[in-house]
Amino acid sequence: MSGGGTSGGSGVIRIGTRGSALAMAQTRQIAERIAKAADAEIELVPVTTQGDTSRASLASLGGTGVFAAALREALLAGECDLVVHSLKDLPTAEHEGLRLGAVPKRADARDALCARDGLTLAELSAGARIGTGSPRRIAQLRAARPDIEAVDIRGNIDTRLGLVESGQLDAVLLAAAGLGRLGRADAATELFELAEWPTAPGQGALAIEVRRERGTRPLERALEAVDHRTTRATVLAERLVLAELEAGCSAPVGATAFIEDELLFLTATVYSADGTRRLTSSHATTPDSRSAADLADAASDVAQRVVAELLGNGAADLTPSEEST
């Protein structure tokens, strides 16, 4: 596996990725599986995105697509054959020239608190400073501990953990999956259970995007090999909540879907920005079978019912739409 290059050749699959340590780590994991399934050489093509270069908050940048747009442009321009996204950063609207080629099995979807002295959220003192760049996490922090200060921060995982180590912050909130992929899971001092602390739709999952026209037989074989049907269905249900609410991926919305005992369960919560109000809806449905089509239909059905209940209870008044972000 080579580390860069933009010109493919026979037996070479070029994978576009952000250049951050986390993006490279998770892309290399996928690249190994693609290489084995396709029996091909892999080239990684680092791409710089707006989210990597701007220090502005994700909310002010609009959230949706700030990490995805440049990767998509490189894919459409033929600079790579597929791109790897963190699924929670991918806009919910389909791109007319692209398709979701595969969704690998999901990692831990929970949020992790990384605090000084091994403390939990309940143990942090009043006035503690907790860093995060997520409006959803800020709302959840304010709901759980209105006496602490949520600090809007940017930067990679090591940078954020360094703010705690240096004493500038008392804690940071991060995705457990990202910590695990970088070998930093031991930095977590508390993991929040999804039933009480839902995370971003698609959190913990990766998305492999390709051009809409079918690729080479080895590439299509590799995509099929790494796709995880259950993960694809559950993250589809979660992301449809965002799409139907017309909320961006930085909106204060948490969603959790899973399949158990032949039922697809979906719970979604919409928060006010200050954390003082929230609405939750839970529904379940039974897929006709475990085929990809039936699972997708079930995801759509349960998401529509959840969203209808949320909107009926006033969710539109709590979260900004994509058009207003």
Task: Write up what this structure looks like.
- The chain has 325 residues and is α/β, with parallel strands linked by helices.
- It has helices at 21-38, 50-53, 58-61, 69-76, 135-144, 157-165, 176-181, 217-226, 229-245, 292-312; strands spanning 12-18, 41-47, 82-86, 98-102, 111-115, 129-132, 149-152, 171-175, 190-191, 206-211, 253-260, 263-271, 278-285.
- The strands form 3 sheets. The chain has a 5-stranded mixed beta sheet with strand order 2-1-3-10-4, sandwiched between helices. It has a 5-stranded mixed beta sheet with strand order 7-6-8-5-9, sandwiched between helices.
- Helix 1 crosses helix 8 (217-226) and helix 9 packs parallel to helix 10.
- The longest helix is centred in the C-terminal third of the chain and has 21 residues, at 292-312.
- The termini are far apart.
The total beta strand count reads 13
Q: In whole angstroms, how far apart are the ends?
A: 40 Å
What is the element string, with H for helices and E for strands?
A: EHEHHHEEEEHEHEHEEHHEEEH
- Going by helix content, strand content and strand pairing, the class is alpha/beta
Spatial strand arrangement across the major sheet = 2-1-3-10-4
| CA-atom Rg in angstroms | 19 Å
Instruction: Give the % helix.
Output: 25-40%
**Unreliable parts:** 3-10, 56-64
Number of helices: 10
Q: Hey, roughly how much beta strand do the residues contain?
A: 15-25%
Overall body shape: globular
The mean pLDDT is 89
Q: Main sheet, how many strands, which sense, barrel?
A: 5 strands, mixed
